[in-house]
TrEMBL record:
Keywords tagged on the record: Glycosidase, Hydrolase
PANTHER family attached to this UniProt entry: ALPHA-L-FUCOSIDASE 2
Record's protein name: Putative glycosidase
Record-listed E.C. numbers: 3.2.1.-
UniProt enzyme class: hydrolase
Entries under InterPro entries matching the protein: GH95_N_dom
Ranges where the Glycosyl hydrolase family 95 N-terminal domain occurs: 36-279
One Gene Ontology molecular-function label: alpha-L-fucosidase activity
Domain of life: Eukaryota
Lineage: Eukaryota, Viridiplantae, Streptophyta, Embryophyta, Tracheophyta
Length: 313
């Protein structure tokens, strides 16, 4: 390298920072936050929250919001030996074709080097929130979406008329739950519909305790199997608990799959989930775990906790 090829590298200046921005005005009093000027348009713009096992991507949409959920044991497939015993023979064939200059044939033969395709991670599902049509007319200048890195809390705020709406999302590690609090600055102004869905094969129902129970299964094979060769995949359950506050607030059950909240002051959603996964060597069909029982037990142990208690890390 010649002297003229050297360049001066300097630390980035404040003007170099691109939104979303990191804000730390006063280290003694101001929290560290990542801020956004509007709802996410792409998955990479959504805010992640999680506790190591459960996670969610928060988009911050208005008037509809989606929390995309995951649980770290949800995979397609079953334990097995994915090595290819014929790989050495295939490698010899590929090498000979390359030596002979038959590159197209070598590329085609190289497919034989691979074993069975590896299985893939699966998403748990979605929490869907649908607010009143009046939220379409929210004041854009009042909108804020942020990730508070000090408290690991995603927060969305905006105003419709003289009412400010706030949504807070965080994941507790000690209690293994994803928490959402929705509130309105004016009493009786919070109305919305909430549902729990999944792209996996599943069924859902309400249990009479303001809870949605979703039970599903992951594919036993990543590639669509023959009907008579479809092993049982990992089973999973997610339970969404709904609690509201306010003298006029009511909860209605819709289609035995979703809830409608009307004229509440605030609402708290608790999401717990479990699966039949035991370890990397146990087939889902041999697992003795009951994800529905485990999820309901976990929820019952925390559903009376205060938000302050759930925030304790």
């Amino acid at each position: 390298m010649e002297d003229g090829d050297w360049v001066l590298v300097r630390p980035p200046a404040e003007k170099d920072l691109w939104t979303p921005s990191l804000v730390k005005e006063d280290e003694s009093s101001k929290p560290l936050k990542v801020t956004f000027g509007g709802p996410a348009k792409f998955w990479t713009d959504a805010i992640p929250i999680g506790n190591g096992r459960l996670g969610a991507m928060v988009w911050g949409g208005v008037p509809s919001e989606t929390l995309q959920l995951n649980e770290d044991t949800l995979w397609a497939g079953t334990p097995g030996n994915y090595t290819n015993p014929n790989a050495p023979q295939a490698l010899t064939e590929v090498r000979k074709l390359v030596d002979d200059g038959k590159y197209v044939e070598a590329t085609e033969a190289a497919v034989k080097l691979s074993g069975d395709p590896s299985d893939v991670y699966q998403l748990l599902g979605d929490i869907n929130l649908e607010f009143e049509d009046s939220h379409l007319k929210y004041a854009e200048e009042t909108y804020s979406r942020e990730l508070d890195l000090d408290t690991a809390t995603a927060r969305i705020k905006y105003s419709v008329g003289d009412v400010e709406y706030t949504r807070e999302h965080f994941a507790s590690n000690p209690d293994q739950v994803i928490v959402t609090k929705i509130s309105a600055s004016k009493s009786g102004s919070l109305s919305f519909t909430v549902s729990l869905d999944s792209k996996m094969h599943h069924g859902s129902h309400l249990n009479g305790k303001n809870q949605i129970i979703l039970e599903g299964s992951c594919p036993g094979r990543r590639i669509a199997p023959k009907y008579n060769d479809n092993p049982e995949g990992i089973q999973f359950t997610a339970v969404l608990d709904l609690q509201i506050s306010g003298d006029k607030g009511v909860i209605h059950a819709l289609d035995d799959k979703k809830f409608r909240v009307e004229e509440a002051d605030s609402a708290v959603l608790l999401l717990v989930a479990s699966s039949s996964f035991k370890d990397a060597f146990t087939k889902p069909s041999d697992s003795k775990r009951n994800p529905t029982s485990e999820s309901l037990t976990a929820l019952n142990s925390i559903r009376n906790f205060s938000l302050r208690a759930l925030r304790a890390y």
